[in-house]
Write a structure and sequence with these properties.
With 298 residues, the chain is an alpha+beta fold. The protein has two domains: 45 residues; 223 residues, Protocatechuate 3,4-Dioxygenase, subunit A (Sandwich). 28% of the residues lie in helices and 21% in strands. The chain is built from six helices and 14 strands. The strands form four sheets. Strands 1, 4, 10, 13 and 14 form a five-stranded mixed β-sheet that branches. It has a five-stranded mixed β-sheet with strand order 3-2-7-8-9, with no helix packed on it. The chain is globular, with a radius of gyration of 23 Å.
Length: 298
């Protein structure tokens, strides 16, 4: 076998994929090899730096468990997650425009984050998932419509957030169970409503390798206050998104780059009294309204 020099190694690796019979996999791996090798050449990576990188990735994997996904956090804080979301949203938007419709634009997507927990309980509209949890009460309501303005009945809103201190149930210990998360279904007019808390800003988990990376980069770990929504219905494209609190800190420096202007929502503050759904409130509360817009599947 002929000896490979530095200038030959990249092409040698690519040549080894000649017999790959998966075109998309070959395309992805070809680009990955080219860009990774170009990065090594650009920074003239030392052997000790490469071993440090391998140690970092090993520690990232060891930090993952059934409730903590450090690799998602790494992807989020490097902006890769949001870049993937943005590129796919752009592709969907172009397809939407190609239909020649003048309908309303669909709701923008953003990162799912590391705290999604599949199988949240299904609750009736108007239920309160924030009871006995830290935070100020907040009433969420609005509609789910398609991009032609038609209401979508029986659409699922899979909702989750941290508490008023910015802590998620997954961070509360093994006995905490699911908290501040539920699935709601819209009524026949496409309307939804539920109670929770006004979300607070919070730091992403920074006690692991990703936190150490952020500190070394000179970055803060904070996310602005937000509530997560995964909205889906048969015959429509699913959207995973947030509603951001309009007066929250860090809207301009989200640690995972997920803020979209269209998703920033005012949380109106109300004194004790009768809430919009007739509930009698003995403490001040907030209300937020947002209409989700889903794209019908082609």
């Amino acid at each position: 076998m002929a000896q490979l020099e530095a200038d030959d190694i990249t092409q040698a690796v690519l040549d080894r994929m000649t017999d790959c019979n998966d075109p998309r996999f070959k395309q992805v791996m070809t680009a990955l090899v080219r860009h990774a090798h170009a990065f090594v050449r650009e920074v003239e990576l030392s052997e000790s730096e490469w071993m440090e990188a391998i140690g970092f990735l090993t520690a990232t994997g060891k930090t993952c468990d059934d409730k903590r996904q450090e690799f998602i956090l790494l992807s989020d804080t490097l902006g890769i997650s949001m870049l993937v979301v943005a590129l796919n949203q752009l592709k969907a938007a172009r397809a939407f425009e190609a239909r020649g419709t003048s309908a309303v634009k669909p709701t923008e997507a953003t990162v799912q984050g590391p705290f999604y927990w599949e199988g949240a309980p299904e609750l009736a509209l108007g239920s309160d998932i924030g009871e006995q949890m830290p935070g100020e009460p907040a009433y969420y309501h609005g509609m789910v419509i398609d991009t032609a303005g038609r209401p979508i009945a029986n659409c699922c809103l899979d909702v989750w957030s941290g508490d008023g201190d910015g802590v998620y149930d997954m961070q509360m210990g093994d006995d905490a169970g699911m908290r501040l998360r539920a699935r709601f279904h819209t009524d026949e007019q496409g309307r939804y409503r539920f109670w929770s808390i006004k979300p607070s800003f919070y730091p992403v988990p920074d006690d692991g390798p990703v936190g150490a990376m952020l500190r070394r980069m000179g970055r803060h770990p904070n996310r602005p206050g937000h509530i997560h929504m995964k909205v889906y219905a048969p015959g429509h494209q699913t959207v995973t998104t947030h509603l951001f609190v309009a007066d929250s800190p860090y809207l301009d420096s989200d640690a995972v780059f997920g803020v979209r202007d269209s998703l920033i929502v005012p949380f109106a503050r109300h004194e004790p009294g009768t809430a919009p759904d007739g509930r009698q409130m003995s403490v001040p509360y907030h209300s937020a309204t947002y209409d989700f817009r889903l794209v019908p599947q082609a």
